[in-house]
């Protein structure tokens, strides 16, 4: 579904660059990054499903609310029959809404135009349920006054729910959150044909931002098909780090194997979908091997982690469990805070810059475990066994990971997840070499939010990284987690975490 206010090709607003035609690639990248809101992409089907769930729940809630406040209902021996009818009404109403096309994004973006159809859906659903009760000769079990009140109040709430949901959907749409932002890698004639195929498509959800190409000769002109060249592949990596990009379409042919592999090796660490254009490919695969954007066939190379529903499921999981954990662990955290304060001078909490999602720098909270004058904000020196910088209380809370408990606040703030690759400090090292120098593709672990615990930690790869193998195994486990994420996998890791903390061999 195309963003109803977006064009296929994004144009930098005039208040950012008065004359885009003469602007440099760097100026264009900066202007695009500053002019586009950096809010996350929401798959349209996720938004419409959430609306559907809200409307499904609304029906029995209103039915039971009317029954609760209706004096004649109280003390009725067949109260569960009312619930059964309410659930049947909810399911029927949802089916009718779906049949009338009222769960399409266009219907949600123009709610006033579809108010009569929403009312019609409620009337049809109510008539179906009422007819069923009549045919089953079961109408005497229900209050007629309750039925009348439910019909009228339910209709009002059905319309109100639809209008409220549509307000949220319109807000997301105005922010461009239903449109995938895409860039092309590889310019010239091939890119021109890809742009032409997308231009000719009538139903896409993509907005093209620009082209990136390492070539500087005539094969990669500054503009192709109305789309400007924004820089090299190296510039693209930085661009994605600072601007929301959802999709990379590589227009380089399969015959340029070495060039293609070099580019993909540089791009796979990014948290985006990477697709290879099959528009000009002579080699043809089975139809189900392709995905499509409008008229453009694509080969799926890399998928963004978690998928469409993953971010929402993970966000709910994080917020709910972190809130419960903070409530349950509040006495423990208070005791640790008091022990830290009494053991040595200085603040109770220690804040440290670490790498977060998409290589963004985040500030992580911990209980202070070192003497104040010896704090190492960048983790440039590994903590070793018997390290004199660590306080007496610090040794205990580091071994038991109690120093990590304040990171539950990071989860609520949205910087961390409960489960994910552990966030590393900016100068953390393994055998005197920075992590990214030791492990090829190290930053691929930042394609998801980092976590308080993770697959690597419950498999023993926590604590000191004094050898290259330790960070290699940790990253290997992190990448496995990203590629195999599921809610059940997260819950399994959370359940295993307390047991894994009993193994403290590498924790100092």
Notable traits:
eight-stranded mixed beta sheet; flat; 16 helices; disordered N terminus; two-stranded antiparallel ribbon; 508 residues; alpha/beta
Structural summary, described in words:
By secondary structure, the protein is an alpha/beta fold. The chain contains 16 helices and 14 strands. The chain has helices at residues 25-35, 44-69, 79-99, 105-109, 115-135, 144-174, 188-199, 233-242, 257-267, 310-343, 392-399, 407-413, 435-438, 455-458, 468-483, 487-500; strands spanning 180-185, 206-212, 223-224, 227-231, 247-250, 273-277, 290-293, 296-302, 349-355, 361-367, 417-419, 429-430, 433-434, 451-453. An eight-stranded mixed sheet has the order 3-4-2-1-5-6-8-7. A hairpin with a 5-residue loop joins β9 and β10 (361-367). The chain is flat, with a radius of gyration of 28 Å. The model is unreliable at 1-5 (pLDDT under 50).
């Amino acid at each position: 579904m195309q963003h109803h206010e977006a064009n296929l090709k994004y144009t930098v607003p005039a208040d950012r660059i008065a004359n885009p035609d003469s602007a440099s690639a760097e100026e264009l990248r900066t202007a695009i990054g500053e002019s586009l809101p950096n809010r996350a992409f929401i798959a349209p089907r996720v938004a419409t499903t959430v609306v559907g769930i809200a409307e499904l729940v609304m029906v029995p809630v209103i039915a039971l609310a009317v029954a609760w406040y209706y004096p004649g209902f109280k003390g009725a021996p067949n109260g569960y029959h009312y619930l059964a009818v309410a659930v049947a009404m909810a399911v029927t109403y949802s089916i009718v809404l779906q049949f009338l096309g009222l769960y399409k994004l266009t219907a949600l973006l123009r709610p006033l135009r579809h108010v009569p159809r929403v009312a019609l859906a409620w009337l049809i659903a109510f008539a179906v349920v009422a007819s069923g009760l009549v045919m089953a000769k079961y109408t005497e079990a229900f209050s007629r006054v309750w039925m009348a009140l439910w019909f009228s109040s339910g209709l009002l709430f059905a319309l109100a729910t639809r209008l409220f949901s549509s307000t949220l959907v319109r807000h997301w749409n105005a922010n461009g959150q239903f449109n995938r932002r895409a860039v092309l890698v590889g310019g010239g004639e091939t890119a021109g044909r890809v742009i032409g195929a997308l231009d000719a498509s009538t139903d896409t959800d993509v907005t093209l931002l620009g082209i990136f190409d390492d070539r500087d000769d005539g094969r990669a002109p500054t503009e192709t098909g109305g789309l400007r060249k924004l820089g090299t592949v190296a510039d693209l990596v930085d661009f994605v780090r600072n601007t929301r990009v959802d999709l990379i379409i590589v227009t380089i042919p399969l015959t340029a194997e070495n060039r293609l592999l070099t580019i993909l090796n540089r791009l796979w660490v990014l948290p985006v979908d990477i697709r290879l254009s099959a528009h000009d490919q002579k080699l043809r695969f089975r139809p189900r091997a392709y995905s499509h954007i409008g008229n453009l066939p694509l080969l799926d190379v890399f998928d963004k982690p978690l998928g469409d529903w993953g971010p929402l499921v993970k966000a709910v999981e994080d917020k709910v469990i972190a809130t419960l954990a903070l409530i349950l662990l509040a006495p423990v955290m208070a005791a640790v805070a008091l022990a830290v304060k009494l053991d040595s001078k200085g603040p109770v909490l220690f804040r440290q810059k670490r790498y977060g999602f998409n290589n963004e720098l985040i500030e992580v909270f911990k209980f202070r475990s070192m003497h104040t004058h010896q704090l190492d904000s960048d983790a440039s020196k590994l903590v070793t066994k018997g390290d004199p910088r660590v306080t007496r209380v610090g040794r205990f809370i580091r071994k038991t990971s109690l120093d990590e408990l304040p990171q539950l606040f990071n989860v609520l703030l949205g910087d961390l997840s409960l489960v994910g690759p552990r966030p590393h400090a900016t100068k953390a090292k393994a055998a005197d070499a920075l992590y990214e120098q030791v492990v090829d593709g190290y930053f691929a672990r930042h394609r998801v939010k980092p976590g308080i615990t993770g697959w690597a930690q419950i498999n023993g790869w926590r604590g000191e990284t004094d050898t290259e193998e330790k960070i290699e195994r940790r990253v290997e486990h992190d990448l496995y987690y990203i590629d195999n994420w599921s809610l059940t996998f997260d819950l399994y890791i959370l359940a295993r975490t307390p047991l894994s903390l009993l193994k403290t061999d590498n924790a100092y």
